[in-house]
Design a protein that fits this description.
Length: about 525
C-alpha cells in the first residue's frame, strides 16, 4: 500500500483513475518525469512534447522505427526545380472532428507555425512561399535551395484550418503564456489517437482513433499519461504495476528495475547533447553581481568556465557511467568527422588564471537556470557544476525548476531571460546544419530571422553563419563535411558553448509490453503492444 500512497501523493487528482482503472491488455499507463502542459503543437519545440502530440497530430512526413523519413500526410513529393518542392497530399484523411484534410490546412499550418509565439518557427524558412496548387497539391517556393527542407517535418504537425478559426486558435500559444488557450487544452489532429481529456499537471487520456488512415501496429484502446516528477515514486509505480512504461529510469535505479520480476529497462545511445550556455549578447547580465559589463563577452571567462568543469566526474558520479562526454555540440553518430575534435582538459588552476587575466581574480556571482524534470539527472548535473565552479571562485546561484517554468523563462517567447543555463538538443534534421543554424547561429539576422532561434545566450560568429549557409546548399558530401568541420572549429575556438555529454536512453517497461525505442528518445506508443 505504501507505493499506492506515494503515487497518490505525487499525482493528486489522478488517484481515482489509477485506483479504479481495470487491468486491461489494451490500456497502457505511461508516466514521465515532466508534464504535458500545452496541447498546442507549436508551443514547445521539445522531444517529449513532440512525442506526446505525435499520437494526435501528424506531419506531411513521418519517421519510421529507424528514423528514416517516410510519407505521412503527403503521400509523395518532388523538387521540379531546386527552389521548389511539390507535395502531393493524401486523400480521404479526416481530422478527429470529421473535417477533411486538404491543402488549405497545410497552407494555414505553414503560416501559423511561423507566427509570433511559435517555438517551431524554424521548421519553414521565413521567406518561403506556400502555394496551394489544388486541394491535394502544395508547393513550397524557396529563395535558395534547401535539400533538407522536410527533414524536420515529422514534428511540424498539421492543424486544421476550420477548427482553429472556429475556436479562436489561429495564433499559436507561446510557452510563456500565463493563461491557457483553446488549442492548449484541446486537440484536433489526424493521428492514431484522440485526446479524450487533458488536465495539465495531472493526467491526459488518449483514446484510439477508429478512423485512422494507417493500419495500426498497436493493440491499444487507450493511453493514460500521468506526470510523476519524483524518481522514487515513478520507479515504484512501475515495479508495483501501477504504470506500464516510465521515462526516464534514473541511472541509479536501472539495476533494480532490471532485477525485478515484472519490468525491465530498454537501454541505448541517445542523439541528444546536453550542454551549458552563457549570455554573450547583453551588455550587463540580468542575474549577476557584476554591474556595467558582461563577463561572458570575454572569451577568457568562457574558457575558464569550460576548463573548470570536470566532465569525467559528472560521468562517473552523476551519470553512473551512462553518458558519453562530448567535444562538440552534436552526437558523434550524426557527424562522421567528430573524431577530429578533442575536448579541452579539465584544468581548474588554468581556469583561475584565465579569470584573473580577465579581471576577475576573486571570481563573480551568477544565476544558473536549470530544469529539474527534463533530462537525465539534470538538476544533479547543475548542482555538480555549481560545486566545480565554486572551486575556481565563481559563486553560482542555482535556479532549478520544472520544465514548464524553465522553458517559459529562457526561450524566445519569455525574452531569453537567462545568464547561464543547461539545455539539451537533438537536431530535428539529424544533421549538423540544424545545430549550426538554430543553436550556434547569430540571433537577429535580418536576412534570416529564424537563425539562432534556440541560441539562448546569443553567441555570434558571422564567419560560422557564412559556413552554415554554404553547408545548407552543398551537395557533395565530402565537401559538406569539411564545411561543417570548419564551422564547429569556430564554435570550439570561441568557447561559445560548453558541451557536456550525450545521455543514455533508459525506459522502464513492463515485461507485458513490447515497445520500439528510437535513438531520438521519442516514446511513441502507437508501436506498443500489451500481452495478456
Amino acid at each position: 500500500m505504501s507505493v499506492r500512497h506515494a503515487l497518490r501523493a505525487a499525482v493528486i487528482l489522478s488517484t481515482v483513475a489509477f485506483a479504479t482503472m481495470p487491468a486491461s491488455s489494451q490500456t497502457l499507463r505511461y508516466a514521465n518525469q515532466g508534464d504535458l502542459k500545452s496541447l498546442d503543437p507549436y508551443t514547445l519545440n521539445e522531444t517529449t512534447t513532440h512525442a506526446h502530440l505525435g499520437h494526435v497530430y501528424e506531419g506531411l512526413v513521418a519517421r519510421d522505427k529507424d528514423l528514416k523519413v517516410i510519407p505521412g500526410l503527403a503521400e509523395s513529393w518532388e523538387t521540379p526545380e531546386p527552389t521548389r518542392w511539390r507535395f502531393h497530399l493524401r486523400k480521404g484523411v479526416k481530422f478527429h472532428n470529421g473535417d477533411p484534410f486538404t491543402a488549405d490546412d497545410v497552407v494555414f499550418s505553414a503560416d501559423r507555425v511561423r507566427k509570433k509565439g511559435s517555438n517551431l518557427i524554424t521548421r519553414i524558412p521565413a521567406d518561403a512561399k506556400v502555394v496551394k496548387v489544388d486541394d491535394y497539391t502544395v508547393d513550397f517556393v524557396l529563395t535558395s535551395p534547401n535539400p533538407i527542407l522536410n527533414s524536420q517535418w515529422d514534428t511540424w504537425y498539421i492543424v486544421g484550418k476550420k477548427w482553429a478559426e472556429a475556436n479562436n486558435a489561429v495564433e499559436p500559444t507561446p510557452a510563456a503564456a500565463t493563461s491557457p488557450s483553446y488549442a492548449s487544452l484541446h486537440a484536433n489532429g489526424t493521428g492514431p489517437f484522440m485526446v479524450e481529456s487533458h488536465q495539465p499537471g495531472v493526467k491526459t487520456v488518449f483514446k484510439v482513433n477508429p478512423n485512422w488512415w494507417r493500419k495500426p501496429e498497436h493493440n491499444l484502446k487507450e493511453i493514460v499519461f500521468t506526470p510523476i516528477h519524483s524518481d522514487a515514486t515513478r520507479v515504484a509505480a512501475l515495479l508495483s504495476g501501477e504504470v506500464d512504461v516510465i521515462e526516464p529510469v534514473p541511472v541509479q535505479d536501472i539495476a533494480r528495475v532490471d532485477g525485478s520480476p515484472n519490468a525491465q529497462v530498454l537501454k541505448g545511445p541517445e542523439l541528444r547533447t546536453i550542454f551549458l550556455g552563457m549570455d554573450q549578447i547583453r551588455d550587463e547580465l540580468l542575474f549577476s553581481n557584476v554591474k556595467g559589463k558582461n563577463p561572458f563577452k570575454d572569451v577568457r571567462v568562457r574558457e575558464a568556465f569550460f576548463k573548470g568543469i570536470d566532465i569525467e566526474l559528472i560521468k562517473t558520479r552523476v551519470m553512473r557511467g551512462l553518458s558519453t562526454p562530448s567535444a562538440l555540440m552534436i552526437a558523434p553518430q550524426l557527424f562522421k568527422l567528430s573524431g577530429d575534435f578533442t575536448r579541452p582538459k579539465f584544468d581548474p588552476d588554468g581556469a583561475k588564471k584565465l579569470l584573473a587575466e580577465a579581471g576577475y581574480p576573486d571570481g563573480f556571482e551568477v544565476t544558473m537556470d536549470c530544469p529539474n524534470d527534463r533530462y537525465v539527472n539534470d538538476a544533479a548535473i547543475c548542482q555538480a557544476v555549481v560545486g566545480m565552479l565554486a572551486r575556481i571562485g565563481v559563486k553560482v546561484n542555482l535556479l532549478a525548476q520544472p520544465k514548464q517554468q524553465y522553458f517559459a523563462k529562457v526561450l524566445k517567447p519569455g525574452g531569453y531571460q537567462t545568464s547561464f543555463y543547461l539545455l539539451g538538443w537533438t537536431p530535428g534534421t539529424l544533421d549538423s546544419y540544424n545545430v549550426l543554424h538554430d543553436i550556434l547561429g547569430c540571433r537577429n539576422d535580418p536576412k534570416d530571422p529564424t537563425r539562432g532561434e534556440a541560441n539562448l545566450g546569443g553567441y555570434c560568429n558571422k564567419k560560422l553563419d557564412e559556413l552554415a549557409d554554404k553547408v545548407l546548399q552543398e551537395a557533395d558530401a565530402a565537401k559538406r563535411d569539411q564545411l561543417i568541420k570548419q564551422a564547429f572549429e569556430f564554435g570550439q575556438k570561441d568557447y561559445g558553448y560548453i558541451p557536456l555529454h550525450q545521455q543514455a536512453l533508459a525506459w522502464g517497461v513492463s515485461k507485458k509490453v513490447k515497445l520500439v525505442q528510437r535513438a531520438d528518445n521519442q516514446v511513441l506508443l502507437y508501436w506498443a503492444n500489451i500481452s495478456q
